[in-house]
């Protein structure tokens, strides 16, 4: 039992402890495999369209997929095995991502008799396997700061998007009453869709106002879109700036007690002493 715990602890540090060089190298290797697998998927999508490849033919791309699937399967089971609470990892975000990138292949290969349309399954599998690119997020620790800023500003963001949703419904209702089905505003939901496309300044052009009052409402929505499109960015940016300022204040020189150092600074800007690691 003690040997098993020691083995699990070693695997855990090799996979998750990014303070160790072995864990960083393993993460980089997994990221490289994820990137290569996505590149192969893009190549396969072009070749498969030209030569009508299917998964019941063991061509080169199937063998490559088998290799990547086995690699990611081994990685998944090692992560589950070494995590202190395996069930929590299985039901975590990373657990779902790891499982989603390997499961479709096993479903198609092990149970082909379940009647799945191979063309649909082939295309769906391409889409799901592209999720492997999300594995590269593990190599971007700065995303934790962005996610933390979003979580801390969630109340302001919810309030903002609730206000925008009300504006969209009101504008859609106005356009539904002004333009009507004759000009493409067939339902209230279609009108709200048009309002969302207009306020984001996308403007697909599939539905356009034809009357003067309708164009006035559209012009007002465009102006609103230019006015509010930067608000979520400003909210998140202010939170991130506050977090960076807190980190700088928290980095105090042990020799002269000077604060306000940059996050990446290694030496004190006042006395030149070595700063403690973050």
UniProtKB/TrEMBL annotation:
InterPro entries: Ion_trans_dom (IPR005821), VG_K_chnl (IPR028325). It holds the Pfam family Ion_trans. SUPFAM superfamilies: Voltage-gated potassium channels. It comes from the Bacteria. Residues 24-242 form the Ion transport domain. It is found in: Membrane. Its main location: membrane. Keywords: Ion channel, Ion transport, Membrane, Potassium, Potassium channel, Potassium transport, Transmembrane, Transmembrane helix, Transport. The chain crosses the membrane at residues 28-48, 60-78, 90-112, 158-178, 184-204, 216-236. It is a multi-pass membrane protein. Gene3D superfamilies: 1.10.287.70. This is Ion transport domain-containing protein.
